[in-house]
Amino acid sequence: MSESVLVIGGGIAGIQATLDLANSGVKVILVDRSPTIGGKMALLDKTFPTLDCSICIEGPLISDASRHPNVELYAPAEVIEVQGDKPPYKVKILVHPRYVTDACTKCGKCAEECPVVVPSEFDGEIGARKAIFLPFPQAEPGRYMIDIYNCLNKPPNYLPCDRCVKACDIKAIDFLMKPQIIEREVSSIIIATGYELIDPSKIPWTGYQKYPDVITSFQWERMINAAGPSMGHIVRPSDHKEPEKILFISCVGSRDRRYVPICSAFCCTYLLKQAIQAKMHKIKHVSILYMNDIRTYGKGFEHFYRRAKEEGVEILFGKPIGILERDGRIIVRFENTETGDIEEREYDLVILAPAVKPPKEIDKLAKVLGVELDEYGYIKTSPYNPVATLKPGIYVAGSASHPKDICDSVIEGGAAAAMAQRSIRIRKWPYKEFKPDPEIRFEEPRIGVFICHCGTNIAGVADVPKLVELSSKLPGVVHAEDLMFACARSGLDRISQVVREKKLNRVIVAACSPATHLRFFRDAAANGGLNPYMVDMANIRNLCTWVHPDTETATRKSFDMIKMAVAKAHFLTPLEKIRVPVIKRVLVIGGGPSGLSAAISTARAGLETILVEKEPEVGGFLRRIKKIAPSGVDAKEMLEELVKEAKEAGVKIMTNTKVVEVSGFIGQFRVKLSNGLELDVGGIIVAVGGEPYTPTEFDYGVRKNVLTTLDLEEMGIESLGKRVAIINCVGSRAGNRGCSRFCCQLAVYKALEIKRSGREVAVIYKDLMLYTPEAERLYKEAAGEGVLFIRIPRDADLKEVIKIGDDHVKVFDRELREEIEIPVDNIILNIGLMPSKSIDEIANTLRISKDREGFLLEAHPKLGPAESLTAGIFLAGVAQGPKTISESIAQGMAAASRAISVLSIGYVEKDPFIPQLDRSKCRLCMLCAKVCPYGAWKGEVGKWIEFSPAACMGCGNCASECPQGAIKIPAFTDEDIFAQIDAALEEEPEKKAIVFTCAWCSYAASDNAGILKLEYPAVGRPIRLMCSSRVSWKHIERAFAKGAAAVAVTGCRIGDCHYITANYQTVKRFELWRKRLQSLGIRPERLQMRLFGAPDVTDVVDLMRELEKIISTVTPEEIKDTMRKLSKSIVK
Amino acid sequence: MRISYEIRDRLMRKSSNTLGLCFQCGSCTATCPLSVTSSAYIRKIIKYAQYGVIPEDEKIIEILWRCTTCGMCVSSCPRGVDIPSIIRGFREILSERRIQDHRITETLWRLYEAGNPWGYGSGEIKKFRLSMKDLFEEKTSHKPDYIIYSCCSTVIDPVSQKMTRSVATLLKRLGFNIKILDPMCCGDVIYEAGEIAFLEEYAQKIFDVISRLDSTLITVSPHTHYMLKRVYPELGVKTNVEIIHYTQILKELIDKNKIKLRSSDRETVVTYHDPCYLARYLNIVEEPRSVIENIPGVKFVEMEHSRENTLCCGAGGGRIFSEETGVRLARYRLKEADDTGANMMTTACQFCVRMFVDEMKIFSSKYINNITDLSELILSRLE
């Protein structure tokens, strides 16, 4: 039987599935119809609700997927034939010719010469490309392609133009390249073909394409993107002026019988994102026109809505019926449904959110695969499994089955991979082992400096040739050169080549962010035979040329940064990645739908699986409900099915069992259970579920006729009187609480059932979060059959707008702005989901964080939704946030997929930034153990000390705490840090501030400030550590002693620390440092501390301005005085 | 305000259950021709309907009667709510409560007493019959090829009369035997006023006329066409003969090459105004266009709002019998026609022609110098 999986579509869902499978030793054939993988996400500027730079977080995944030894990537290519009714399937793939061979170095000379200019589909057609092009810099396969449709040549016989051929020095262009047909046998197929947007010009009222200043949201993404056609400047296409007043319009074709009858699922929230970004770009008047509902159903989305309002975004409601142009401005006519007034508002720029539709030719693909489409043209899925099609061995992920945001697509990508895992028996990891070049020795530094142009991103501002020249003269530097794109395959190959030829033993790449790119350069150096830990970067793009547009300033700071990196390089030592063996056993905590489906998936993938459930029986919510809304699937049947499958798969289920204690780390957790059992497991999946909200409002428990949806489930509809009102959002979307996601679907489902039983029923709601086609269809049915829907104001307090009496409810109707009285016999409170009562216990036992609502915090809201921040601990179901049963099942499988991909290889690798203890200096004070967030240090004061490297995550907190200086963190030693301080302050220290950052949020905030091109004073000289807790007094002292005018320490926000609680120490120490400065007679204000989130770009700017201000107050005498006071420290 | 499930159900039925679908986006209000200057409250009217509450606000009551039932709101509704039917439903309830536009009440009384909504007597009908004598023989053994049902306004309105005459003349010149029925009110105003009991009674009269026919019936008025094709069949009034609108027969004859048209010496740029009932209610949009495009030497231009997005002339929904207050819809439409640069505006409804001809008297046009019915235009170009 074949052991390969075919993934069709290389968007984020397909990439997630590909990587999960490939990492677990499965061969993946990844096919994309477009010239690159990456899908829509690669073209977005930021992702909501964290405002992460989209390509920055997806880029590494694109690159991983394309370079993975278990992945065969074909693009542009399409699946043209599939043989078989069940696995294995014989598939034929047609690979279209690129007309450019893989010798291409992406130098871009061909495109410069190409005479054909066409609108670029990768820039929403507002930018242009040539007929020979690269979709975007991070595109994979990473080589140019000829769009033969637009090319002047029509191979093979008509080749009048040879400009590109002539321009290409390495002869990579081959017009005689032929289409290829590849045949493979696969055990599963994953469809991840994504979505498309409708063309708004087909909707007459939009004025799209008639008026240039009416654009789509996708064009906005490209426009605001720093790499987009307008370089991140928002301008009106008509006159290139900056707009002052802009309007975003939702539901352009969505939820409209004439175009797309269903919800597009993510526009409501991305409009909030775009509006917030517009505000950050200082656009004065920013409004969003929502049709009626604002569907902020995802985790954190409701907070995002509030943030938009706080930022001054105006939220309007209504649907435009016409868009016109008058005197160069765009006029939008609509009824403002809040005031009832007809408005004709004028805007400089209008942005449309076009409806989502299935990709073209999906019907053709469905035919080839033999799978069914639903009435809206999406791939039809099983009501029992959201990623299973109705054909065995064929799965679906992401928007291919209906529109989904990135997070849900990632979950489904994982879930589909978990399904595909079930037929895998043989796993292989054909990884290339790093072969060190024995001729490379480390004693005498032989440093190579590579300076990247990043197109014009760096070279357009800083004087790169000058930087090369200056760098070549730095001590230890034996080679310096510039590269057009260091991260391109050609650039990476060049680095390998120079390392090999010149026997470089240290490499510095001055380019972009090490957060995204360091690993590529490490790999490149390793290919040349150099230990990868001998490579470091200077981020002269995000932290310099993007934020300091002045050439001289940028060049000077860039050189400082290179100098700092070179100085540090002297102290680098070769390190080996740490391999920790893992136990191929998984513990699943919680036996609800998510836990069960997770357990089935891990067990089927060959990992021994133990599931513990604290209740006497498994089932979770499935035991408390009869029918699952909106599919109508019988809950009991589903549970029986799951339990049967779990048993078949060999899951060991322990009921009445709780987890009492957990120690250890990824691969080797030791778990104590309440039944006395002790287990060693490699990974833990937390699926502890949630708790239905227990209402205190609306006289619940007092009035007999007031029920909850759960009561109704038990009592049945027959127990209800003739007239019923359902109140939505009880316990959701108030105060700190976000949307509970499942309840609107339930309301519609129940209301329809009640109505069909011959009763009158009204649903009182704020927004109907009906984001799936099934839910939207059910809503239409309910409305058509006479269920009454009553909207109350979105931001209202339920208790203020709904008053209940003995036989009636009085509701303030948002549409009429009047109170309506509804006679009722029963009131049903549609209750939301709260974190499980045992969530604190679980979080403490596992030492994982919670979000602001009290659910478990995921590793990343978009790309890591099914795992915690602690490696080896995965999250599934309501434990991570409210969701539907179907979504819980998907997330259960996604968590399993992550666990399988991590554990099946048998070991985990991690960076070797772990402490080395000098036992001769150690006094066994055990302060290290006190501050370690992972319990990696163990011992007794004065008696013994032990360190478990596998538990350590490398924050360096212990090294800072150690009073003896007995702990050393490789690559972050005191010497490294001193060297950087000294290099930074070599010239004009009185004009500079040393800025310590962590490797996570505070660095990301600076990175992002760069992406947004926020300009700030060039006073800071950044030193990047893993965590702010690595900073100790020694470093502060050194900086001031060397004449720095100011020092700043930055880190993640409290609670967001990537080392759980490490930065608590930073805060504590900061107070002490200031006191110490005070007592030394040094102004404490010269030392600053800031804690940022990754999106807090303006805080970065504020800090830099603050530092500039402080520096201006520091006199030369003051600096001299400080230096004198601290002179002793330097002697050391 | 208290919900009435009874009224709500009644309006739900009226709207074929589309009432429930409204999700309050306000497209209807914004698109309503009565909203040109201030809100026409349509969205709120639908919400009241969902609650089964009769609005008390006089401004809203006035809108309920001023609505021309043009159906523009339905075209722009993303949910497909049958708004005019809901408005008619409200009118029905209001009529039961004797809350009516007094002009509508008077018109209905005239219709009840005189047999037509204009109040003319049988002498006038006789006169009309005599005036049409040249076109058909009343007493003949020949079975007519076509029977023409003309609007009751034909008797007293020269515009209307000209239209019926040109339709009849055209057919006659093509060699057909025709018959023109004595003009009789099609009951449109009863239907629009929501006087259901009266309409049921009146349906009998219509039945008496159309059930006895033995040849294809050609309607001149889109309103008549709608009543005969859609409304009466629901009340059980049916006929065995085919009912077609005159624009449809024109197209058919042109397609069969039976109508030969000639060019005119002057350049004619024609725009076509879609009557609401023809375009939106009956979906007859291609036929008139096909006819115009077949006239040699004619350049056809579309207005900004055309086909199912047409703008109302202001006469529908019984409004022809009332004074227009506030907004004069015909003016907006004339302006749009003028903006196309056409020198001739044509349409296929006697009320539309009437409204535009009247408005033209006080409208200073740049290009439009001729407003005519499509049948007249064709007749004038017959070879």
Cα distance, first to last residue of chain A?
Answer: 67 Å
The name of the CATH superfamily of the largest domain in chain A reads FAD/NAD(P)-binding domain
Strand content of chain B: 5-15%
Radius of gyration of chain A: 30 Å
Helix/strand/pairing category of chain B: alpha/beta
3D shape of chain B: globular
Distance linking N and C termini of chain B: 66 Å
Describe the structure.
The complex is a heterodimer of chains A (1132) and B (383). Chain A has 1132 residues and is an alpha/beta fold. Chain A folds into eight domains: 1-96 and 179-194 and 358-433, FAD/NAD(P)-binding domain, CATH 3.50.50.60; 97-176, Alpha-Beta Plaits; 196-357, FAD/NAD(P)-binding domain (3-Layer(bba) Sandwich); 443-573, Rossmann fold, CATH 3.40.50; 581-690 and 835-909, FAD/NAD(P)-binding domain, CATH 3.50.50.60; 694-831, 3-Layer(bba) Sandwich (FAD/NAD(P)-binding domain); 914-968, Alpha-Beta Plaits (2-Layer Sandwich), CATH 3.30.70.20; 972-1132, Rossmann fold (3-Layer(aba) Sandwich), CATH 3.40.50. Chain A has a five-stranded parallel β-sheet, with helices on one face. A five-stranded parallel β-sheet of chain A has the order 15-22-16-17-18. In chain A, α1 runs parallel beside α9 (406-421), α1 (12-23) crosses α22 and α26 crosses α29 (1097-1113). The longest helix of chain A has 19 residues, at 551-569. Chain A is globular. In chain A, 58% of the residues are buried. The mean pLDDT of chain A is 94. Chain B has three domains: 5-99, no CATH class; 113-251, Glutathione S-transferase Yfyf (Class Pi), Chain A, domain 2 (Up-down Bundle); 258-380, Rossmann fold (3-Layer(aba) Sandwich), CATH 3.40.50. Helices cover 47% and strands 8% of the residues of chain B. Chain B has a four-stranded parallel β-sheet with strand order 2-1-3-4. A four-stranded parallel β-sheet of chain B has the order 6-5-7-8, sandwiched between helices. In chain B, α1 (5-14) crosses α6 and α16 crosses α17 (350-360). The longest helix of chain B has 16 residues, at 158-173. The relative contact order of chain B is 0.11. The mean pLDDT of chain B is 92.
